[in-house]
């Protein structure tokens, strides 16, 4: 395809093998050459200039694009609907796509995989996700839907295809693992199960790994950048793209810059995901910077007790993870908030002691950490594989009048 993936993968390896200073010099050199525009429409020609640039909002990116600033005609285009539902256009030229795939190949090799090997993809519905664009370039892929009345056959077909790795949202991998566990079937374990990092709990991950007899690696990415972080075999989510710089920016999510991008200027782009970075000693993969906390879309970060009282939605994940560790079972879940102090709980399958038991457990748990007894209503309808439920376990659905 002429995308020179291995050339770029070798560049990725070389950049990560360099001392930080040398790598920064390389990035400075690229910036002097590419001269992307920042949100103030100024040319960014050094890392210093980059870090003093204002943040670029999704809206500003759209305006920048519509005015044709900082952009050459892209060969590959795709639209992404952000959290606001307003589409952004991402354009990539051949070398940019090659770089992204090079980064992906670099990550895959950490697990003894290569780009282009057999991928079994679990997807809720066709085209309903990020990254469907990559599929045109990685052809060795089969999509499976191990849900519904035909789930066992679908799973048997998946295993029969002998994938090198599985790829999908945590909720679907979980469904698949639960089906596989009930089947008496011999299979060659995949080399790795890759899942999106936003929605998986440690207990779920351990379960998926056990049933598929394979390591589970979390991938954190965005439509605009593809893979940003990838989990090493020791469980750290390392930043893996040497051209993509990630900064914390407090409550408004993180700022992401791609210094290699020429078809579009992405300088301190507000991604909207709330993450925390930490320096690790681990040199197995990518950067020493690892994502220590990932709380997904910042809009879904807090649960509100009242106008002025809130707590981290992460507590729901902690509660359910504890419940699952204690009861030895695993299921998917989503919590919705429509009113102050009130939550609706859905699970992908009924807990053994029933969903009311889980609700009571969460209420007790939250009472311990937040000091308030909240109201949790179990939703008896099962979660259908909705795209909204895949990005995380907490959906903040109240009217946004709680800003002040
Ligand atoms: Zn590591």
Which properties best describe this structure?
404 residues, Rossmann fold, GMP Synthetase, Chain A, domain 3, 2 domains, 20 strands, binds zinc ion
Summarize the biggest pleated sheet. 7 strands, mixed
The number of distinct structural domains comes to 2
The largest beta-sheet arranges its strands as: 4-3-5-6-7-8-9
CATH-derived architecture of the largest domain: 3-Layer(aba) Sandwich
The CATH superfamily of the largest domain is: ANL, N-terminal domain
What is the CATH T-level topology of the largest domain? Rossmann fold
Structural class: alpha/beta
Task: Give the overall shape.
Answer: globular
**Bound ligands:** zinc ion
Q: Can you count the helices?
A: 11
Helices, strands, pairings?
Layout: H1 5-17, H2 20-34, H3 47-51, H4 58-66, E1 76-81, E2 87-92, H5 94-109, E3 119-122, E4 141-144, H6 151-160, E5 165-168, H7 170-182, E6 192-196, H8 202-212, E7 216-222, E8 226-231, E9 237-239, E10 244-248, E11 254-258, E12 269-270, E13 273-279, E14 289-297, E15 302-304, E16 310-312, H9 314-327, E17 333-339, E18 342-347, H10 355-370, E19 375-378, H11 387-390, E20 394-396
Parallel strand pairs: 3-4, 3-5, 5-6, 6-7, 17-20, 18-19
Antiparallel strand pairs: 1-2, 7-8, 8-9, 10-11, 11-12, 13-14, 15-16, 17-18
Helix pairs in contact: 1-5, 7-8, 9-10
Bound molecules: zinc ion.
Zinc ion binds at residues 232, 234, 236, 238, 280, 282, 284-285.
